[in-house]
Amino acid sequence: MNNSIDFLDIKLLLLYFLLFTVVLVGGWLLNDVFAVIMSAIILGYAVSRNIFKAVVFWFIWFFSYGFYLSQSLIKVDIISTYIAKPSFLLLVIFIFSLLNIPESLKNIKYIKTWLWFLFISLLGLLYHSQMPFILITFSSYLFIYLLLLNKKITATQYKNLLNLIIAVSIMQTIVSVLQVFNVISTTRLFQDGRGGVFEETLGADDAAMGTFFNSFVCSWFQSLIAVFLFLVWAVTKKIKYIVIALIVLLQYTVVDSKTVLAVTVLMFIYLLYYLSRNSSFFKLNMRKLTLIFVMTSLIILTLYAVWDKYYKSFDTSERGAGAAKVVEIMQTSGNIVFDNISYWGKIRGFQYIYTDFLEEDYLNLIWGYGLDGYHFNGKMSQIENMDNPIMRLDNSTRSRSGLITNFAQSGIIGFLLLLLTFYSWYKFNVNIKINNKIDVVRKAMVKIFLLFTLLLAFLYSLSITTVVFITFIALVGILVNYGKLNEQT
Fold it and tell me: Is residue 395 part of a domain?
């Protein structure tokens, strides 16, 4: 196996970091105009079939879009809803690159399953008189995955894309810190579920959302990149990947995503277990495994220590309580769940929705409320109000979950097709033959991160349309072809 996974290039990191900064500052200065300029650049490269540059600028815009929305930099609805919407722009790039997608991929099982899911979802949207455009957003993960298997993208260009994603991740830590100290505004607009919007200034505990729209999405994105960098370090033994991973994880020192932090800690523990079970692939001896264990422990302890100081600085309800109070609250939530497991919202939520399907309309069993029919101030609130009073303590106890949302949107048939699509995609990727270190990292990424993403989607309101999930799928797509091209050379 060769060392071709060693992709990190400081010059490329600085280049993409600068380009990303220009896009963010451009939004502050020109608002809608800059959003239109970015859309025009992406479309121009797509139409001219310069797929790599179209993808580069799409990624930069994709990672900036949430920032534009949260800072209200786009004032005209038609621009944010249609012209500059990343999923719509991605569809255009995908259409112009169709001829360069390998024929062998067109009959893959997960694609057929996804098409069936789209068909059921379309029926649900039409039945509930909802706009079908949301199907494009839900298909973004498939579009980007197939797009990155394009035959026109070279090994060097895949390397560039990896550096771009790492540069964006470093930016999340910097922007999050600026948001917590209110250098960057933490006021954002929310949909009220009735066609209107309301403005809210986030507290210090939710402000660290980077260039995304939610702090927990930003944190899980950082976890994705950190796990990827640790895996790359495990096969290259180059300390620069550890240094960047630690910079990425610093975002957790300014965020209040308790559920995400807990799942991240579990994921790093599992990462250690995975490395030990597959030490022959990673060429790790006991000294290296011990080093990983010590580093993982130090990361966890450091995050806890800074987290503790953070809470003592910003806690308003009980000044100086620190992380100990937060841990106490988490323990209380855990005790409530285990003592009343049959009433746990994460389980009962599926039952509430199933019962509502039967009472409201039997056909909802097939396609749910529609992909655009389950909102916080609409049906979701109605379902959550069914929770047992003892389960309304916090997000870890109530029936708020990404998987419950998917079930509500898609119905029984649609939800099963969605899960089958993910399972088929998982099997497709782990069964690809391992020929080099890139393949080792890719397979580990799929086995580790998909598992814990589904766990987080069960415990928290993480959706398959979020930036982090689409980035994960994109990262795997990059590694699939990057590995093949490096093997050929």
Answer: no
